[in-house]
Amino acid sequence: MRVWVDASVLIGLDLAGEVRVLKELLGRVSVTPEVTREVRTGRESQALRSAFGDWIEIVRLRGDRRRWEALGLGPGEASLFLTPRRDRLVLDDAPARTVAEAEGRDYVGLLGLLIAGVDRKVLAPARARSLLRRLVESGFRVSADLQGEVLRDFGEP
Amino acid sequence: MSLGICLIMAAGPGVDTNVAGHHSVHAVSPVASIRQEAQPLQPREVAAFHIASGSFRWSAVVPMIPSAGSIASPRAASSTSSRPARAAISRVASCVATPFRAAFHATGGDRLIYMAFHYIVMKNLQVRIEDEDIDALDALAEDMRSTRSEVARHALGEGMRKLRMEKALSRYLNLEFSLARAAQFAGVTIREMAEAASARGIPYFRYSVEELRRDRERAAGWLKG
């Protein structure tokens, strides 16, 4: 069973300088060629570049993703719904989560994953807080109510 | 030594011979480009260059193969019935023939070139605008040492980009688009779209606290080890 990651998750973590946290939490993860194209724009970090083919595997899938694109998803997200139904997905974008829910997929968002990492002591709370701050600074804002909840879970007084 | 130039008009994938759109065009000197690409003179190498010519935009791909004969003068072997297109091909053929000859003499000249022109014929659009906008266009054209048409085309292109970004942000805000789809619609990268959305105060992570708690429980079972 594979864990598939959406492009925004990788881009956000890369901008925060913490793409490796995915490996620490999940080990090997998979991406589709569509996700790879969205991530590898030439502006990604060396850390992310070298992760491809190492702990990030690119897996080609067959199928027509247009059905999902018609629901407002990008090519990368749409391609994730061509994965085997028992596989797991990491995605945060609201439209993609709606589709995942409707399709009965096993999915989590990055924030839930990070909190679980803190709970299991795989991730230090201070590092998680710093990661969240850098995520927000690089354009991946968190809604006010979520941010309060996440920071509490990251041990902020 | 032989030198031949055969101009073969070809509509590329997705390029209709009568429809504007698609290719981005860079005004690159064909001589410089051909010199650069032709230096190694390997069979079947491909040189690519782009020409902006009047109301036509050209994107040419030039595979070079060892000479198998010669064609004395440029000609347009066109598969299109479009008269303006054929005329334009002939014009471009005349324009590029001399530089090509020079370039290929400089590099040995022992090659037959097939040029596949992907061209875009621009359509005419009539728009009524205010006098002061015309004056502003003319002033800008003079300042940019360009033509009124070029400046208007440039302004339209820039305006379209901004409008697409606005539309993308609006759909993203309303959850009609994901970030990636919004980026695709606006013609920018996901990173750039995230920055644009953030600048408008639109959060990326915007699901409920209940969903977050559910994610947390589910993710606990996913962690390695």
Helicity range of chain A: 40-55%
Approximately how much beta-strand content do the residues of chain B carry? 15-25%
Give the proportion of residues in helices of chain B: 40-55%
* Number of domains as seen in the coordinates of chain A: 2
Cα shape of chain B: rod-shaped
Largest interface, counted by CB within 8 Å of the partner chain's CB: A-B, 52 and 40 residues
> What string, H for helix and E for strand, traces the elements of chain B in order?
EHEEEHEHHHHH
Round the mean pLDDT of chain A to the nearest integer and report it.
Answer: 94
Please state the CA-atom Rg of chain A, rounded to the nearest Å: 15 Å
Sequence stretches where pLDDT stays below 50 over 5 or more residues of chain B: 1-81, 107-120
Strand tally of chain A is 5
Main sheet of chain A, how many strands, which sense, barrel? Answer: 3 strands, parallel
Distinct helical segment count of chain A: 10
| Structural class by SSE content of chain A | mainly alpha
Do you know the CATH architecture of the largest domain in chain A? 3-Layer(aba) Sandwich
Strand order, main sheet of chain B: write it out: 2-3-5-1-4
Number of helical runs of chain B? 7
Large-scale geometry of chain A: globular
At the fourth CATH level, what is the homologous superfamily of the largest domain in chain A?
5'-nuclease
The helix/strand class of chain B is alpha/beta
Ordered list of secondary-structure elements with their pairings:
The complex is a heterodimer of chains A (157) and B (225).
Chain A: E1 3-5, H1 7-15, H2 21-26, E2 29-31, H3 33-39, H4 46-51, E3 56-58, H5 66-69, H6 75-80, E4 88-90, H7 94-102, E5 106-108, H8 110-119, H9 125-137, H10 144-153
Parallel strand pairs in A: 1-4, 2-3, 4-5
Helix pairs in contact in A: 1-3
Chain B: E1 3-9, H1 30-38, E2 45-53, E3 56-66, E4 76-77, H2 83-106, E5 111-121, H3 131-144, H4 148-173, H5 179-186, H6 190-199, H7 209-220
Helix pairs in contact in B: 1-2, 3-4, 4-5, 5-6
